[in-house]
Amino acid sequence: MENLEVSLSSLSIISRHVDKSHTQIGHQQDRQSILECLAQLLLEKDYTLLIARHVRPLVLDLLERSAERVQAGGSINHDLHERLCVALSRLLGISPDAHAFATRYFSSAPPVFQRLFFTSEQASAVQYGPRRMKLRDLMAATLRFLQSDCAKFRMLWDWSPCVSQLLTSDVMVRGSTAQCLALVCHMTDNQKAIFLRKVLSNDEILSFEESQQMEAEKALVLTNHKSVMWHQEAAHRFTMGQVVSEDLSKSVVAVCGVVLPRTVPRQAEPTSLVLVESTCQNLRRLALAVASHKSVLLEGPIGCGKTVLVEFMAALTGHTKAADILKVQLGDQTDSKVGETMVLGNYKVLGKSVICPWQNHK
């Protein structure tokens, strides 16, 4: 069993919500209450960055817990959905996990500005909490998603309901909406400047830019390197601040202290690899690269364990099917054309008079 030593007690906000944060956390129920509390606090826009800073390794787990609450019962809880969208947008600049999670979440969830699609009857049926997200928060979150990956979110959502928000009296809503539509329409800098001047006055543009700068300064959160450690623990001994793998959401898995998403529910840990110190160090480095969505090159002599390390990582994260992991054996006897096609891709022939586009290998 793997223990994640996260300094939960460093957050004074937790002590006001969970009385047991100052005592020994030995029972799973205690640890679950801490994690559930953190997941709820993460959706509070004033606490999102604070929580993410101190429990950065658990951000993915907290997001998965929140997503389960949003879709509990088979229907969308629009109040929690809006809170999650705003919190997720604030995490885009500080957590690589947020980008991958957003891709998975919005593949089935409605857009951030879903309330703009509601009729008056549908809007009256939605139950919001006492701290309902304001439209300015939703449009600002939408802008952050577009700025993070315009190509993806531009094609994902229907932007027609946003046009009406250019006439609202709220400067922040108008400013964020105008910025969003400028990105969606691929406006040049000159076109964007002309468009903004038609929507906002000079003073309003200045006010909007100042608010954007303040948000950017709040998002400059540095990693707290001392907030997490990890170790393999055979005995069931827990002290204050420890979280173990079994406490995490079923949609994630801890790999040497790095929390990664799982494609299938948690299963028994593979036993094909002996986790000695050097292996754990290499596995952790590989997990960090995967979490950062970076390409990885493993170097070493034949038989040193490169393939086994990747296969072990694939098994931990639920990529157990043959289609989930591709192995191409390259050597002196490998046909260069076949090797290039398998690794890089090839031209797809559509016809004699048709231009052949390049098809990346998947």
Automatic annotation (TrEMBL):
GO terms for biological process: ribosomal large subunit assembly; ribosomal large subunit export from nucleus. Keywords: ATP-binding, Nucleotide-binding. This is Uncharacterized protein. It comes from the Eukaryota. One of its GO terms (molecular function) is ATP binding. GO terms for cellular component: nucleus; preribosome, large subunit precursor. SUPFAM superfamilies: P-loop containing nucleoside triphosphate hydrolases. InterPro entries: P-loop_NTPase.
